[in-house]
Amino acid sequence: MGETVLPAVEETSPKAEEPPICGLNEPHTTPNHRQLQPTPSEEGNTPPTLRPPHTLTAEEVAETLGVDIDHGLPHSEAESRLQLYGPNKVEGAEGLSVWKILLRQMSNSLTFVLIIVMGISFGINDYIEGAVISAVIILNIVVGFWQDYRAEKTIESLKKLTAPEATVTRAGTMDIKVRAVDLVPGDVVQLSVGSIVPADLRLIDGVNAYTNEAFLTGESAPVEKTPWKTFDDEDLAIGDRTNLAFSGSEVSSGRCRGVVVATGMNTEVGKIATMLRQKVDAGPQSANVFVRFLKRVVSGTKTILGLVGTPLQITLSKFALLLFALAILLAIIVFSASKFQIGDEVLIYAICVAVSVIPESLIAVLTITIAVGGKAMAKANVVTRVQSAIEAVGGVTNICSDKTGTLTQGRMVAKTAIIHGAGTLTIDTITDPHNPTTGRVSLDNEPLNLDQFRPSTVVTRFLRTLALCNNSKIKPPSDSPDDSANEKKNDLDHTASGDDRDTDASTIDTVSQPPTAIMGGVSTAPWTAFGDPTEIAVHILASRFNMGKEELLSKLNIHLATEFSFDSKVKKMTVVYKNNHTGVMDVYTKGATEFMVPALDIPDQERNEILQAAEGMANQGLRLLCIAHKQLPAGTNISEREEVEANLNYLGLVAIYDPPRLETKGAVRQCKIAGITVHMLTGDHPGTAKQIAKDVDIIDDRTPDSAIMVAKEFDRMSDEQVDAMDPLPLVIARCSPTTKVKMVQALHRRGRFCVMTGDGVNDSPALKQANVGMAMGSGSDVAKDAAEMILTDDNFASIVKAVEEGRRLFDNIQKFLLHLLISNISQVILLLIGLSFKDTTNHSVFPLSPIEILWVNLITSSFLAIGLGLEESQKDSMHRPPHDTNKGVFTKELIIDKFAYGTTMGALCLASFAIVVYAGPNTQGLGHGCNEGWNPSCDTVFRARATTFATITLLLLVTAWEVKHFHRSLFNMYPNTTVFETLYGNRFLFFAVVAGFVLLFPILYIPGVNRHVFRHEGIGWEWGVAVGAVAIYVAVLEAWKAGKRMRKRDGKVDVEGG
Q1: Any transmembrane segments, and where (predicted)?
Q2: What is the pLDDT of residue 495?
Q3: First to last CA, the chain
Q4: Which CATH number fits domain 413-475+527-657: 3.40.50.10790, 3.40.50.170, 3.40.1110.10, 3.40.50.880?
Q5: DSSP string covering 484-510
């Protein structure tokens, strides 16, 4: 975790005033018994087959590749191999062009239906209706295009990980600079601090070499390189292949030399690029050309019709196709009613009925609602790259999360210190790992007031050792950035010291921004730290007691006599400080417990006790350092490391780990309440992963052993074996990219809807395969480009906020879908039964004109639907299980409600038209030619049409408030809330209702607009009919909801939604 940028770090020289570093060891090498002559490549030959290089010695690799380790490849051979292997670069992939984004907006069934209706409208010279539908189509496309406009550069960003130059040995000449793109297998490459590894290497030798592979393996600590080792397991996890260096990783300390074993797309980074280029869920290719062509046709058709994507996209596309079929059926019904004598009148009526069944504004409303949801998510630190993912995340059933920096804080801290003869120090509730003023310190479980605490001699010596045997630097917020930059440059030579390293990629320069609120009274400005993460952690522990290195050196009359830096063979670091007055020397040593215990001057029983205590803490996933000290008389010879580090006095142990974020445990529990399963997939060690999973409540003591696995075991299982597991593993350690992809595929086979989080290049294939990929804001560009969402604060709790926002959006989509469909159903009922209204020429009369229908669908309903899309989240949204993604938004309750409400509305509109035509005073009947325009015989029809228009408008306005909740009464929707507060709570919806009511009057009464555009007339007494219809409608809906509440109380129905 934590890979952000791979800096090109300069190696700096030690300052002149510093004492010499003693005890450096020669590189680990194996004698070369014979000279290996490279085998020249011949044109047309194939590359040699190389066994997994971590299972071979460097000499065996060199022999296979035909290279002399000491002389390198001849220039001619290097050029020949470059032709054979190709350039050392990751191949690009097609980016998503502007035209493809535009095509994506058009690739949905509803847009195609509208295009067909638009074409027919223009074909029969109905230019007003055709123009309005054209405007709707353009609006839908433009809004969607604007929201989805993102450049896709997934593979291109991989190129940022490659080094521009490499230092090689060729033709017996060392330190030759060549372009990294020209490297070939067999090249011998030299690496030093700050170098970016240009290709995959089998290391030959090295001195204290550590590389940062967090971007690739997810391993939080810089990895110690062991060139002299070979491994028997060909399937060893990438992070455990410590005799290899991987392309794109950075040398954080030491130096090493290696032979290139893979370049370009054959490197581990290249393999990930290959996985990214593959289509999601791509199955095996058939050998039959016709079958492959047929699959492409089917795939292309699905894409064009919008039948791929999120569950909502697929559901709505299928729904649009159903509506299209229904529109054709309704048109046929209209034609059959006229006995298939299809003139202009009949064709216009058929189009009018077809238009009434299509929610023209659905795409625009959905896009705007999702865009508003995207802004809400951004405020919760979740930036959305693909807008459709906002709704999709609401249906998540499983979250697969990385550990370091997401569940944890991504910084190492000292958790426990066992001080010999003093007790046990514990530190918890740390909000900023680099700030020594945060957190709570206890001694033997008794909280300490550090301002009043006076440490004993033993504690003082222990803390002094932590601070003085340390090359890190801690800077408070008051220090200027310029000073910090200078410290970074001066500290690079000291990054080799320290023990097991376990933190994020920022091993040289880290700026600590508190992930959560800082304790009251403490500065919220960032503290900065430089050096090895392990050293930073123990240095901060000492600084909590005002015993930082700089403070001690300013108070004590001492100077550094010599330093034995950390060495991978002895796993220790020692410094010797000399008293300027007496000449007495203090030896301060820290190191790995198993290497320190033999050097301690203690009885065997105490040695065993120390090892047992260390093993117990190691099993809890903690990294351990053993601390020791001794004094030497003035004049003692300190040139021999072995003598200086012998017979040390044991001071204690300090345990270090990457602590969970304070809010993670609560977020995981909230997921469990919401029916969401959380999995931890990490590159870290099993012990660490298991302990952190326990700390954040992913697992507990009742969790079966099968739920905790090492990736190697999981990867070896067949799909059938994985599918037979119950449950799937909750924790997988030492994960590789293929492990994470395999987990996502296993979840898909179970019909689960999953979120995958990640930040490194290694996470990007799984991010792409997951239903919703979430990349970390501090992560690699590759991960961000492969994901649909980005967590700007790298916080697991933000994922839970995103899920909650997704559920709010899902609920609101159901509400406005119900509203739109009620309108469409009522219009279909009105127009179909309206076929029976025949004028004197035996033509059916429109109860609503085409423009009235479009106004209701596009203006009145659209703004009401947008208002419903802005409804606040229901209080129980995270207390119910995820919705069924197979059913989607069209639940049983929604389907029943839309027909019940739509039928009621349609019947009332039909009754309104009939009352004015047949029961009103001074009725003139249905006249003639009233569909084309006004004439004296059309007065009654125009007034009846206006009454119907007013009725359906008022009913839709009331419906917008009624569907705010699917089963609660409008008059008692929320506890302790008046009706007005309920209506006014959603300001946008409230004013959309007011605007819809006010706009009725100019449409009905402005001369010219009413008769010539809308084809209706101003009304008077007819308002009583419309208001009466509203009263009946509200009564029916309230009775319907009351019945649902009664059935719910009786347990006969599970009320969903709203």
Answers
A1: 106-124, 130-149, 319-340, 346-372, 816-837, 849-870, 899-920, 940-963, 984-1006, 1018-1040
A2: 38
A3: 39
A4: 3.40.1110.10
A5: HHHHHHHHGGGTT--SS--S-S-SSEE
C-alpha closest to that of 527 among 569, 564, 481, 567? 481
Q: Report the interhelical angle of 533-543 vs 457-468 (nearest 10°).
A: 140
Q: 696 with 418: CB under 8 angstroms?
A: no
In this predicted model, what pLDDT tens digit does every residue of 1022-1032 receive, in sequence order?
Answer: 999 999 999 99
Marked catalytic residue, from 68, 402, 432, 839: 402
Give me the mean pLDDT over the 874-894 stretch: 83
248-272: pLDDT as tens digits: 888 888 889 999 999 988 898 888 8
Residue 783: which pLDDT band, with cuts at 50, 70 and 90? Answer: confident
CATH architecture for segment(s) 62-277: Distorted Sandwich (2.70)
Give the C-alpha separation, 289 to 291, whole Å: 5
Confidence band for 356, pLDDT divided at 50, 70 and 90: confident
Give the global pTM: 0.71
In terms of phi and psi (left: phi > 0; alpha: psi -120 to 50; beta: otherwise), the region of 468 is alpha
CATH homologous superfamily of 350-370+811-870+892-1051 equals Calcium-transporting ATPase, transmembrane domain (1.20.1110.10)
Every domain of the chain with CATH number 1.20.1110.10 lies at 350-370+811-870+892-1051
Ramachandran sector of residue 172 (left: φ over 0; alpha: ψ -120 to 50; beta: rest): left
Burial per residue of 674-711, b for 16 or more beta-carbon CB atoms within 10 angstroms, e otherwise: bebbbbbbbbbbbebbbbbbbbbbbbeeebeeebbbbb
**Bridge partner list, 245:** 201
Strand blocks (E) in 769-911: 772-776, 789-791
Question: What residues contact residue 48 under an 8 Å CB cut-off, 6+ apart?
Answer: 64, 65, 66
Strand partners, 443: 425, 446
Q: Phi-psi bin for 264: left (phi > 0), alpha (psi -120 to 50), beta?
A: left
State the CB neighbour count (10 A cutoff) for residue 764: 33
